[in-house]
From TrEMBL:
Residues 183-192, 202-213 have a biased composition (Polar residues). InterPro entries: Bact_OuterMem_StrucFunc, OmpA-like, OmpA-like_sf. This is OmpA-like domain-containing protein. The chain crosses the membrane at residues 21-43. It comes from Alloalcanivorax balearicus MACL04. PROSITE patterns: OMPA_2. PANTHER family: LIPOPROTEIN YIAD-RELATED, STATOR ELEMENT OF FLAGELLAR MOTOR COMPLEX. Residues 183-213 are annotated as: Disordered. SUPFAM superfamilies: OmpA-like. Pfam families: OmpA. Residues 79-205 form the OmpA-like domain. It comes from the Bacteria.
Amino acid sequence: MDELHDSQAQATPVWAIFSDLMAALVGIFVLITVWVIGIQLELSQSLQQEKARRQVEEQRRIALEDALRDPLSSGRITFHNGRIGISGSVLFALNSDVLQPQGEKLLSSLVEPLRNYLSEHDELLMVSGFTDDLAIQKGNSRYQDNWGLSAQRALTVTRTLIAQGMPADRIFAAAFGDNQPVVPNQSEASRAQNRRVEITTVPRQSNQAENNE
């Protein structure tokens, strides 16, 4: 009888340990489940935010495309991924930053739709100048390289738009030289495509800072 009692006394701690182990495993499982649910909720919120961002960008693109319907329909400009493209040959002669009459007329046609767009959207216009990969011709003492030429062309377009009625505080210039070609510089035709000016809408810095806070 005493031996049976001693055997039961020795077995009790084993079951107690097993019970504690199971409780610990259940606790770990609950923690993992809560963690997984939290990750899923976070991913779901991120997806919703990304979806909302893309919807806003699409609405902006549609609004800008609608504002530029007339010049787009005439084929005088291109519009791709929110970028208004103007051929450099329309605006400038080769290696020149002097605006041609047809280029000035084209820019004049863009002022009203762009100004109307800006009146409804708290954004800025970035005017970017691009060149092909050919070096500046000898005898052109105004520019050392394509950076200088692309910068001056962007400034010329920016100042012309301002003179034609674009608010000066809503537009700025940028230069990219022969970087970011739209097609490889393999022929005169492809280089002509890369000699261009683009106008892009960008958010104000103050709005970006507020969104990051």
